[in-house]
Amino acid sequence: MFITSANGSYRASDRTRTRLPLTGKSPFRRAPPVPTVAGVTALDPRDLHGQTAVVTGAASGIGAAVARRAAALGMRVVLADRDESALQRTAEELRDTGATVLPVVCDVRDADAVERLAVTAVDEFGPVRLLVGNAGIESTGRLWEIAPDRFERVFGVNVAGVFHGIGAFVPHMLDTAVPGQEAIVVTVASIGSVTTMPAQGAYVSSKHAALALTECLALELAQAQAPIRVAAFLPGPVDTGIYTSADADGVAGDALRERMRDVLADRGVTPDQAAEALFAGLAAGDFWIFTDETRAAELLRARADRLQAAVSPVRTLG
Ligand SMILES: NC(=O)c1ccc[n+]([C@@H]2O[C@H](COP(=O)([O-])OP(=O)(O)OC[C@H]3O[C@@H](n4cnc5c(N)ncnc54)[C@H](O)[C@@H]3O)[C@@H](O)[C@H]2O)c1
């Protein structure tokens, strides 16, 4: 239920939580987490037991690992994906571990389908506590060589897909929020959301957009004093099949796709490690969540320095 005070804002609960310790030494000089109107700055993962999570792109890779992690915390998990057979396989694997899951075939590019996903999730599993907008696709190639329909597909999944999730789930979360149990909206963006590189312009620009959208959502919900927390997950390389299913255009696109497959296999963390980092960040109450904080800090600092000094991106080419 969305409880409002006389002035129309969310009524703050007096319930507070302590920040859970993070393992390892973070290279970020973090500002203290911003308390929400409910006064909650961190999340005790035990509180998620019995609650509902919805994960898009849950049939494989990071999404499947996030779903596994959520189920291991005792959450009921709605698995949404456009790939029906992979979705059924993942659902079966999770059920074999005793998890309560509901697979729903859904293409996040389709606003009506995402709306139906929200209705089904609430009807079957009750109020949604955690939405993870994870579905995403890669596409490589120089911008003048990428076919327009591929560019549109990337933005349809990576940007419109996130937008449709917000539109379908946030109103419902506002209606069902319980004091002290704020809902959480996570966008799986990318470290590519804060960097730029050649032959990946469609993907990188879509991830910049997904991050900007997510930051705007956080601002809007804070301004509305809504009991919903927002987090942006910016993984570095994770060993998934994202480049195997990626489109590639042109020689540069083919070469980058091959190289990135190797990078993910050689240097990527496992999807389960990525999911672990995500839930640790949520437990700490962080907005910015990374799989590799040291590398992320280097990249962010380099970009901030370049922007401040008005250095052309071309100067970053080796
Ligand atoms: N793997 C990495 O190195 C990496 C790094 C940074 C960010 N990410 C992001 O993580 C997210 C998950 O990627 P992954 O690496 O697990 O890839 P993946 O290919 O293993 O999983 C993506 C899933 O999304 C599903 N999907 C694709 N289009 C969809 C649509 N229109 N509607 C619903 N589902 C759809 C796919 O079927 C697949 O199951 C993506 O947003 C990706 O951009 C991945």
TrEMBL record:
InterPro entries registered for this protein in UniProt: KR_dom, NAD(P)-bd_dom_sf, Sc_DH/Rdtase_CS, SDR_fam
SMART domains: PKS_KR
Domain Ketoreductase per the UniProt entry, residue ranges: 51-241
Gene3D superfamilies according to UniProt: NAD(P)-binding Rossmann-like Domain (3.40.50.720)
Keyword Oxidoreductase in annotation: yes
Record flagged with keyword Oxidoreductase: yes
Record-given protein name: SDR family NAD(P)-dependent oxidoreductase
